[in-house]
Amino acid sequence: MKFTCKKNILQESIYIAQKAVTGKTTMPILGGILIKAVNNQLILTGSDTDLSIITKIPVDVEEEGEIVVDAKIFGEIIRKLPNDLIEITTIDNNSIEILCQKSRFTLVCMNPDDFPPISNISENIIFSIPQKILKNMIKSTIFATSQEETRPILTGVLFEVKNSKLNMVALDGYRLALKSQNINTENTISAVIPGKTLNEVSKILEDKDENVNITFTSNHILFNFNNTKIISRLLEGDFIRYNSIIPEEYNLKVIAKREKMLECVERASLMGSDGNTSLVKLDIKDNSMVITSNSQLGMVREELNIILQGQSLEIAFNSKYIIDLLKIMEEEEVIMEFSSSVSPCVVKNKEIDNCTYLVLPVRLLK
Amino acid sequence: MKFTCKKNILQESIYIAQKAVTGKTTMPILGGILIKAVNNQLILTGSDTDLSIITKIPVDVEEEGEIVVDAKIFGEIIRKLPNDLIEITTIDNNSIEILCQKSRFTLVCMNPDDFPPISNISENIIFSIPQKILKNMIKSTIFATSQEETRPILTGVLFEVKNSKLNMVALDGYRLALKSQNINTENTISAVIPGKTLNEVSKILEDKDENVNITFTSNHILFNFNNTKIISRLLEGDFIRYNSIIPEEYNLKVIAKREKMLECVERASLMGSDGNTSLVKLDIKDNSMVITSNSQLGMVREELNIILQGQSLEIAFNSKYIIDLLKIMEEEEVIMEFSSSVSPCVVKNKEIDNCTYLVLPVRLLK
């Protein structure tokens, strides 16, 4: 194998392939990137067997071949080299030489035959979606996935395609996030993608209008964009019927300035000494929301002007859940719909009807 | 106690006093800041008993008094409040009320009588030095202090004042850093300041020409600048006679481009799998420095153009020590003086003769 390519292009492609490489493995081959030089292309593959990323860049191939290099050290070497042409040559079956200006590295390699096989998926596109929209939909839902492995299905995000619409849904038993987008497809599908996969996908997606093509098989999803293919196993099992959880009716509706409310709840949450589980009480009446919290550290009282439609209500929440969703939302004003102090609260954007958040209240001891 | 002040001024003063507050203490009072409102001033004091910081800001005092608040939560509350006037009032002996716009906090406090007493130092200034120069001198030496407690004196930096000159010296048994500055004083003094103190002092010092006044007692140092006093215990014991360690003669002298050499050594150090202790070999001859390193991961060879005066030499170093000092130095070119492959290497700036670094080589097995 022998090829020449520009440092910054190689560095970027390693960055992408590396996203599927797990640092924590006892199998050295899974810490590696498979590099294949063929047809004046360099194909880099990283895989932890559940998630695989394959990315291609144009290079000058003088001699075809393939090899596996340790992702971390290879990435570090390329990153630290001057921004110039890099020449890489295999010098025997288990090492390569990396040349750039006056730098010369000899790096021990691994056998490509030991690299895990990548599922061969015939690309049968189910739908396409602009990169920046998918990136935003992942951000808007992934925070609500469960971090606990007790119910594995909840660590993923549901992709539900029907009636020319993509619904992405995550829920963890305390809250739910649903984001929707019209797409151009006749297909119907329902699959749950691991949160870890979507986390890596969103780091590789760019804020641009170019499409991502998405293909499903019975147990894999394939994202194809920018000369990069990302293949991930799906989570097995049925997702919760989320529609039945979202209440359709409400007794009172609040319109609040999102950033102001976020600041108030963040301050109120300071009274929780353990940060994550601070309880905040909302007292809603007369176009005002009074937010209070107290602990052995002291007390806090915040007051927010709102528009209230309906009767008054006292309700309490875990502050983290309210903060998370107010941070993720982007509009200036949010709508909150309440039924009672023990029923879930539904939060939506005021202007654009493309997301629904739901938070369970904490029952107050009277 | 009752006073009013601007949020950003209060926030800045908490940031300063907090630098002396240790997070890791079993005594809650040491996690606190003493707040004293008197004569239209607010005096904030933080102390871990070894290091104390006292800072003053002008405020509107309506009622004088003092109280101790938990530094972390008080700092967080002030930081999150809107940028407006804040009113703070004691509501009884063990709590204060914090008011800002529509936010109202009640915060539990501690008894000021329990706060550790601060050494009263009569200010008898030994020398004054511009803030930005002291900040730079700390940065240029502190990295060479020992991180091990086996010889406590080496965890500090020697301040040696004599012949109208301040020498700051740190050494850890493998390397030495000496930075000098002419100062206007007739005094002679020699004292060792804890590295931890200097670390906090350098965070508070600003990049400006205003002076820091420095006072010594037999076991304390006082830094006085910007309405802030920093009092620290000195380290006890005699510092190593550093002058006898620095060789005055050499057999060969190298002039090298600092950044180029730094990049070469950083790349060469990548071959050390455990990062910190990678061994790099320097082969110096014919106006060229060849830097090599190898491990079970592979090999690297770097070549650097230099100006060489004297004979050729092969010598090896722990890459971390070379990287640390080339990063700290600021000039374009450095001078390196060598005597033999087992003698310390002396590194200096080419243009300005105000620093001397020394690194011990690693003996190579032949």
From TrEMBL, chains A, B:
Residue ranges constituting the DNA polymerase III beta sliding clamp C-terminal domain according to the UniProt record: 244-363
SMART domains: POL3Bc
Subcellular location: Cytoplasm
An example Gene Ontology biological process: DNA strand elongation involved in DNA replication
Keyword NAD: no
GO CC terms of this entry: cytoplasm; DNA polymerase III complex
Residue span, DNA polymerase III beta sliding clamp N-terminal domain: 1-118
Molecular-function annotations in GO: 3'-5' exonuclease activity; DNA binding; DNA-directed DNA polymerase activity
DNA polymerase III beta sliding clamp central domain mapped to chain residues: 129-239
Record Gene3D superfamilies: 3.70.10.10, DNA Polymerase III, subunit A, domain 2
Keyword entries, A-Z: Cytoplasm, DNA replication, DNA-binding, DNA-directed DNA polymerase, Nucleotidyltransferase, Transferase
Subunit structure: Forms a ring-shaped head-to-tail homodimer around DNA.
Family that this chain belongs to: Belongs to the beta sliding clamp family.
Function of the molecule: Confers DNA tethering and processivity to DNA polymerases and other proteins. Acts as a clamp, forming a ring around DNA (a reaction catalyzed by the clamp-loading complex) which diffuses in an ATP-independent manner freely and bidirectionally along dsDNA. Initially characterized for its ability to contact the catalytic subunit of DNA polymerase III (Pol III), a complex, multichain enzyme responsible for most of the replicative synthesis in bacteria; Pol III exhibits 3'-5' exonuclease proofreading activity.
Name of the protein described by the UniProt record: Beta sliding clamp
Organism: Clostridium acetireducens DSM 10703
